[in-house]
Amino acid sequence: MKKKKPYAQKLSTNDLNNGATSGSSSQSLVGYAEFFSSLKQQIQEAQLRAAASVNAQVIEMYYNIGKAIVQRQEDAGWGDSILERLSKDLTSSFPEMKGFSQRNLYRMRSFYLAYRDSSGIFATAVAKIPWGHNSIILDKAKDPQERSWYVAKTAEYGWSRSILELQIEQDLYNRQGSAITNFSRTLPSPQSDLANQLLKDPYNFDFLSLDAEAHERDIEKSLVDHIQHFLIELGVGFAFVGRQYHLDIGEQDFFLDLLFYHLRLRCYVVIELKSKEFKPEYAGKLNFYLSAVDDILRHPDDKPSIGLLLCKSKNKLIAEYALRGIDKPIGISEIRLTESLPESMKGSLPTIEELELKLNEIPKTSRSDD
Fold it and tell me: How many domains does the chain have?
């Protein structure tokens, strides 16, 4: 019995780049990997455009359904009870489609009422984010400007539903860009504008389960232990570099509380934590750290490093005076910790000692407290 000829062995990427051929074919495949990668990228981009187009069509359909409901209610005096009947009839007529629940029809109505005075909304970010995200914003953000801001940020950063909900619940709209800074004087435009927009006041560290009397070392260690939550609170673009980052300056040891690199600003961000009210000398020391980071760590292509002082509280006038003579870009914000905990909860929360045990995996460097 004659054996079947085996299939030709699959070519690896290296084979293709080296011009290997299959079987007896003499045709060269040099550059095939790049060709395939280009086609793959085109297909993926087309899929994204198709998905965006479908989403925009769904948003427009929901808007028009909401518009029809509102107009009929206004013209015929129908009440909200019509939504229950309409939900049943639409679900029966389009069993393959989801989204016709009574609750969702009410949201469509609210969606139309929220945007009917907006011109060309389907050319804006509203049509670029999924219906579920639009629903969260409708339910939780009632002010039109605040609602538009969350829509734009969701489209810009690609927030998931859970992250969007968290940002609204923690009032990011009113906290963003509220820190006291000297950026307009110490940073070139547009970096100064972007840096100002990225900083908040206050920073919400409720997830630490520490009370308002916690010391800065406790806060620092717990932030590293909860680094994912910390990065979410800091915002998009922060990359964690290290805790208690060592700098050798003039044959002396200095340690930065927390060091980050910001991918959009293209610069290092030094964060110093203070469990007390802001004092002018805090700004002077952070100015010193920033000078050292710019000399020791900063790459020629990096932008000037930025400092962020997180304090328990601050006097606005004192903070502004302190920054007036500083030549490095520094922002000052407050920390919001849990003010008090019910007695029933305190026993179930980890102690500082327990948190320290978890942090044993992180390289430690001792230093004297400020």
Answer: 2
Give DSSP secondary structure letters for 55-108. HHHHHHHHHHHHHHHHHHHHHH---TTHHHHHHHHHHHH-TT----SHHHHHHH
Helix (H) or strand (E) holding 249: strand 238-249
Q: Is the separation of the CB atoms in 305 and 290 below 8 Å?
A: yes
Q: Which of 148, 169, 190 is the last residue of a domain?
A: 169
**Average pLDDT value for the chain:** 76
The full length of the chain comes to: 370
Q: Domain boundary residue among 169, 198, 215?
A: 169
User: Mapping DSSP to helix (H, G, I), strand (E, B) and coil, where does residue 306 land?
Assistant: strand
CA distances from 267 to 57, 153, 195, 263 (A): 40, 22, 10, 7
pLDDT, tens digit, 9 for 90 and up, residues 46-58: 777 777 777 888 8
Which structural domain, as residue segments, surrounds residue 116?
48-169
Predicted local confidence at residue 273, as pLDDT: 85
Q: Do residue 344 and residue 284 come from a single domain?
A: yes
Same domain? For 213 and 162 the reply is no
Q: Shortest CA distance to 313 belongs to which of 336, 331, 285, 329?
A: 336
DSSP codes of every residue in 263-289: TTTTEEEEEEEEEEE--HHHHHHHHHH
Residue 367 counted as domain residue: no
Q: Say yes or no: 356 and 278 in one domain.
A: yes
Element (H, E) at 146: helix 144-157
Q: Is the dihedral of CA 176, 179, 185, 188 positive or negative?
A: negative
Its pTM stands at 0.52
Same domain, 153 and 256: no
The residues facing 15 across adjacent strands are none
pLDDT tens, 221-255? 666 666 667 777 777 788 889 888 999 998 899 99
For residue 193, the domain's CATH number is 3.40.1350.10
Angle (CA) 55-56-59 rounded to 5° is 85
299 and 192 belong to one structural domain: yes
Alpha carbon 355 to its chain centroid, in Å, reads 26
